[in-house]
Amino acid sequence: MRFIRIEMSSQEVRVEPVPARYQGVGGRGLISLYINEHVPPACNPLGPENTLLFAPGLLGGTHLVNTSRMAVGAKSPLTGTIKESNAGGTFGDSAGRLGITAIIIEGCAPPGQSWLLRVDVDGKARLVSADEYKGMRTYALTEALYKAYGSQNSIMCIGPAGEQMLAAASIQSTDTKGRPCRAAGRGGLGAVMGSKGLKAIILDSRGRTTDAIMNQEEFEKAAGDFARAVRNSPFSSSVLPKFGTAGLVAPVNSMGGFPSYNATKGVFDGWEKISGEHIAELIAKRGGRTGHQGCSKCIIQCSNEFVDAGGKYVTSSLQYETIWSMGGMTGIDDLDTIARLDFLCDDLGVDTMSTGVGVAVAMDSGYKSFGDGKAAIDMVEEIAEGTELGRVLGNGPEAVGRYLSHSRVPVVKGQSISGYDPRAMQGNAVTYATSPMGADHTAGNVLAEYFTGRLDPLKTEGQVEASRRHQIMMAVVDSIGLCVLASHVLSTAEGGEAFVKAVNAKLGIDLELNSLADMGIRILKAELDFNHKAGFTNKDDRLPRFFYEEPLAPHNTVVQISDEDMDRTFEF
Amino acid sequence: MKIRVKLFSILREYVPDYNPQKGVEADLSDGATVSELLSHLGIPVSEAPVVTCNGLVLHRGDTIQKESAIEIFQSVAGG
């Protein structure tokens, strides 16, 4: 259990014990508490006062399935708020097994310098010059790093977008096959990493010093019960392995809530062509893979390997949100184009969601036409070229809207919405508007409430409460390191009980499931406090005007949640 | 009454030679409920089926209206 602290201006590396007040939280919780305590809320996110943290979940590196997510956080250059972004792959599990509680990156290296951080199997950390890797795209970079350091490593890295400090730059993370196709995508943390002169972090993946579990026997039993709960759910045992998160395309279109053509319609004309069912069929025909395990210790295995008509690899982990942003939002219904755009964003190290929405804003303004796949690819390539438009696009959808004088920009606090239209899902309107992270797809997605018939997505009743509940739960999930796709089992008796027993066994405490909510509330309060000190008020917890004014077909509704109700969200 | 139903996810496996473009036709008695439709198609509750009509989620006891376009999914959460 240790902090690895790096001061980039002097390249000083220190390993420290973890202070008591940061014990018992991990991942997002640890990061948010630390940032709220240490980072000046008014700081320049790309300057030396910002701190970039990497933290595995509290149970990262243990045998609990689906708990290898890696949290990354800082003050965001995209939103100006506190930001936690999390990524799959193997990095979180490797960090947990090295006994790393957090890697804390402070200060900025002198301009022009590029470094990589290496942590070896004994937990020894050192900075190594990355001059030879400057400017490299992530696929070539990780290939070179695996050659230099061996295959038994996990890598998180930035591409040209992060090196250019573009506000939508991601940090890419290697999956079980060593491909940098997973991402801490949202909020421009790649830009923060680039501003500090850090190109990559390489962790040895053979660590055997996971933090102690207080009650090993209880933990193993709870872990077994939890795995069983995940297997018993049709969503995690049928839909996701067979279709990936692309399995959401059909139901969300059916609900009329798939924001299309820059959120001017709720159903995409070509949705069947980009559905999970069609993608699985195409992949099978071409000899690619579905049901691919991209992340350590995952039993859901929702990833895929998309190949072209000749069977050649195009991209991996082609997900719902990318299909939405690069397909539905842009009007592109050609899977080969969408897959290519997914690869390009991973390779350049830029968020697929922000970039797709940026392209959609450009198309909506008339800059290019909806559905023009070649134009979309060319625009994204410009990010690597560092052209004027490339820089604008890489700085996120709001920058695109300003540059092209277009006002229909679907963002909150600068971050784009995700693949659920708030006018067709009033509960997601609340989450988008109020989450401390800006509009977000995992911060508190209430979709399950609609599919179980518990709530009517088109009415206001119950939406604020549902968003609050889900935001609290996700703060806990992101702190433990659990994947959002396994988190729905927490609402089953079997899954919820097993999960809290695992946490109890780890810490040697005795909480009930609903006391875990206290952890979530504590984390959200820290995040809200930081944002408040950074100058945010309730006026920032609103959606763009067009969501309240432009009815969305086919249900022809607008966002109906009142300002007063939005402001009730965090009445804990 | 004859109802046209489109199936998604692995629910398509419950209808032999399912045609994604056409869906499947279910011949139900007037006033049939969602539960009866699921039984008719042989889709068990364990698959967490969600039945929608015109984009609205129906409950198990709701009656199926004549000439509805029905879609059936497996329950999903966000991601």
Q: Helical proportion of chain A?
A: 25-40%
- Overall geometry of chain B comes to globular
Give the end-to-end Cα distance of chain B, rounded to a whole number of Å: 38 Å
Q: Tell me the CATH superfamily of one domain in chain A.
A: Aldehyde ferredoxin oxidoreductase, N-terminal domain
What is the number of helical segments of chain A per DSSP (H or I, 4+ residues)?
23
- Secondary structure class of chain B reads mainly beta
CATH superfamily of chain B: Beta-grasp domain
3D structure, described in words:
The complex is a heterodimer of chains A (572) and B (79). Chain A is of the alpha+beta class and 572 residues long. Chain A has a domain at 2-204: Aldehyde Ferredoxin Oxidoreductase,  A, domain 1. Helices cover 40% and strands 14% of the residues of chain A. The two termini of chain A are 32 Å apart. By secondary structure, chain B is mainly β. Chain B has a single domain, classed as Beta-grasp domain (Ubiquitin-like (UB roll)). Helix content of chain B is 10%, strand content 29%. Chain B has one helix at 34-41; strands at residues 2-7, 24-27, 49-53, 56-57, 69-74. In chain B, a hairpin with a 2-residue loop joins β3 and β4 (56-57). Chain B starts with a strand and ends in a 5-residue tail after the last strand. The chains are: A alpha+beta (572), B mainly beta (79). Chains A and B meet through α7, α8, α17 and α19 of A and β5 of B.
Q: SSE layout and pairings?
A:
The complex is a heterodimer of chains A (572) and B (79).
Chain A: E1 2-7, E2 12-17, H1 27-38, E3 52-56, E4 70-75, E5 82-87, H2 91-97, E6 100-106, E7 115-119, E8 125-129, H3 138-149, E9 153-157, H4 160-163, E10 171-173, E11 182-184, H5 189-195, E12 198-204, H6 216-232, H7 234-243, H8 249-254, H9 276-286, E13 289-292, E14 303-307, E15 313-316, H10 320-328, H11 335-348, H12 352-364, H13 373-385, H14 388-394, H15 397-403, E16 411-412, E17 415-416, H16 426-434, H17 447-451, H18 463-480, H19 484-487, H20 493-507, H21 516-533, H22 546-549, H23 563-567
Parallel strand pairs in A: 1-6, 7-12
Antiparallel strand pairs in A: 1-2, 3-4, 3-6, 4-5, 7-8, 9-10, 9-12, 10-11, 13-14, 14-15, 16-17
Chain B: E1 2-7, E2 24-27, H1 34-41, E3 49-53, E4 56-57, E5 69-74
